[in-house]
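Reviewers of the previous submission asked for a worked example of the structure-prediction workflow described in the proposal, so we include one complete record here. The input consisted solely of the amino acid sequence. No template or homolog information was supplied to the procedure at any stage.
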Amino acid sequence: MKMKKLMYILVVLLSILTFSISYTNQNREAVSILGSFSNNQISKITDKKNYRILIIDEPKQNNQKFLDELISLCQDNDYILATSQMINIDTSTHKEITYIYDQNNLLLDYLNKNYGYKIKLKSFDDGYITTDLSDTKTNGYLKITSQSYLGDNIYEYTGFDNFINKLESVNNDIIYNIYGNDLEKLSKEINNIAQGLIEYEVLDDEMYEESIPVNLDIYIIIVFTVIALLICIINEFLRMKKEITVMKLMGYSKRNLFSNLFSQFVIKIIFIYLFVNIILWFIMVRNLSIRGLSFLGMIILNCLIFIIITVIITVCAYLLLVRNINIKKSLNYNGLLKISFAFKNVIIILLCLVLFYSLAGAKEIFNETRLYLAKKNISDDYYLIENMVNNKNAYKAIEILLKQKDTLACFFYSEANQETELPYIIVNKNYLNLYSDEYKDIQAPALLVPEAYKDEAIEQYKYGTDCKVYYVKGHHTYLNVVNNMRGEIGDPVILLSDKDYYSWSHLLLRNDKEPTYYHNLVADYINENEMRLTDAGESLTIMFRYYTLPLLVKLITYIGIYLIVYLTTIYMYMMLYFYQNAKEISIKKTLGYSFFERYKDVYLINLAGYLLPFSINVFLLKINIFTTLAVILFLIICEVCIESIMMKKFDHKTTVNLLKGSE
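From that input alone, the workflow returned the following structure tokens.
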């Protein structure tokens, strides 16, 4: 009964995993396509090549003239033009608008065919379509498998009408993607219309290529879980040995035996798998759009594959085991025992590989998680300046923001590709106060130097200031709270400064005030659209949610799946061992053999079995010997514990029952 419950749990687990991985892959693919549509997806749709140019800080009227000429060029040569612009709706909601000129409407047809929902648009020049289902002014919607997967991101597609007039984003940069067949000709034409009007830079298209790797996770998990199911099914058949023998004595044919005994067994497993998938679909998708139906087709395919595999496994197990049960003599499990032992060693080798590569990434993943929690504790109270216009007025705006009593400023100089022999950061007093009160009496500018660097030349770290030097005792680590991609730095030289040295990307602004407060502060120098504020904690959470968290979940899931298969294999091996040696063990127990004397052979054989995985991992695969020893020691402890528990339970059965053949 316990094995049957484990089998049902494995079916539920397999169903959840196949569903969730398919769900994640399809949504991730859709978001990747919609989010990078202007950059590289158009080439895949039209087979045209991309010529990419960057325009920086040109006057609005020049930008408009160039765009008019560019659209005229595209119209005459059947080129496609696309660009995108990111807009902050609020501190956590981002809208990416993709502007498209495509006189043949190939891109609109593609979006409508793959993601369209109630689209009435005939051309991008006539309106826009969006993923925002709450937008009542749109000409149609784009729906992916699950709209919730988009989070707070909105993707919108429209024509170039009023593009330049709406272009009030920070830095006023534009990246145009022009798609054509002859890039050499296109390059000359772009140069001709830009000459004397604007300056531009040609970008390498390969820098923007984004590829989604083929995800083999689902196949790996299916294989391992099916193996565990196979082990459970074999054990279940062995458990029914006596029942099968009795039915044979009663004259049941092989066909009747299978239909009466095993068809229900198969139907239950298939029903559980289908039921879990249906429930998950209603909870997570419940969407009959184009992508929703496409995903439903994928789930149906997964179910069909599962049904076929389950039927094949059951029939094979029946043919190999049940039909060979002899009424007159007991079943010999020696062959199965050897197969199980060999399979257990294969699992150990694979587990060593999986755990080695998983543990290699685990340290980084857990470190990122630790840093996220530490940064989140600070970032939740601040706005992050996501972008700011780059001109002389911006520096004056930064000075004003720095003077705010709660502004944090930190510049991790040695991490910013700057050449310094020692780790070096520039921070203001508010940042330093996050870590210790011992610096509260130190006035800026000042240089704080760890005692370990007392004999080092430190003049360059004063950055031209006449500042007092303080030597710091002990070990100190500082978080880079303004950069989500960077972590922490240990024992740096610290230049304490409340002015200069900082750009907008080095600041955090207290969020106890509305963003309009800060926009009004700097209104004399830059307008509202030239400084973009976002919630620092939310920005950090998004990074963690989309990058670190999936890796963490994947790591834990994989190790869990493999360990379940491994433990199930051990359980099956020991059950076969008991089936084969029950009477011998009971006789030894009756004759007074100690626990170790009764079971030393199985301990020694199983422990010796680890020599092969150890040799393969260390000498053939060149995996670190200490890591391999640690993994194998962990597996040995698990196996010894499980085997000992099973042996103790087996010994609790009476000698009389064992001699009768009771299991």
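The longest helix spans residues 536-590. We consider this example representative of the routine output the project will generate in years two and three.
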